[in-house]
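Researcher: We're reviewing a set of sequences before deciding which ones to prioritize for further study. For each one, I'd like a predicted 3D structure that I can look through quickly. This is ABC transporter ATP-binding protein. If possible, include the structure in token form so it fits the rest of the review sheet.
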Amino acid sequence: MQVSGLSKSFGGIHAVKDISFSVQQGEIVGLIGPNGAGKTTCFNLITGFYAPTAGTVHFDQQDVTGDKPYGMARRGIVRSFQKTNILKSLSVFENVLTGHYIEARQPVWKTFFPTAQVRRTEASVRDSAARIIHTIGLSRHMNTPASQLSCGELRLLEVALALAAKPRILMLDEPAAGLNSHEARLFGEVLRKLVGDLVESILIVEHNMGLIMSVSDRVVVMHFGEKLAEGTPAQVQKDLKVVEAYLGGSAKEKS
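Model: Here's the predicted structure for ABC transporter ATP-binding protein, in token form for your review sheet.
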């Protein structure tokens, strides 16, 4: 995926201004910045929830700028949200089944008169749901109501729901919010396993710097809606502009 010159203005406020970066196959790219830097707005522009004021998004060598969210999902660009969309009364398995809607939807009449094709699709969806749950490490909670999961397990289930839509690029918006350091480390290990297995690449917005720096191949830093820096985790952590704007302290103090 290639983001080029992406911009969004709300009246006289430039929420995102001339952002450019790419997400290559096999990569995890971290998108970081202080609160209000424009990270979630950037996500909304890429996935079609907002129409950009300027700039383009290309995927699979096609210009997909401004495509509707459901169109993006069908192309394989799938995002999570900061607010949970878990159905607490359903089991882990039932939740992940609901995420297969795009693949499993059928005409109403086929529900009452299922054909061989419908039965094959249902079997495929159930197999897919079980595989996703196994990959993210929730197998022992397969039949557990989501209401009984820990915070860390709920975060993994949210990722599982996104994976059920069969993404090629998985976009995660603060997926580790509320996790302790141990849970965040385990969460990062799961993300690493997904690339090349269930997804081609991941773009992640996250405030947990330990997680971002441990899982990302590249990091893009936003500040006041603009791109401040880009590079490997090691390069970004040494960038004095980033140290001053985001990671804490002034460049002079860190030098």
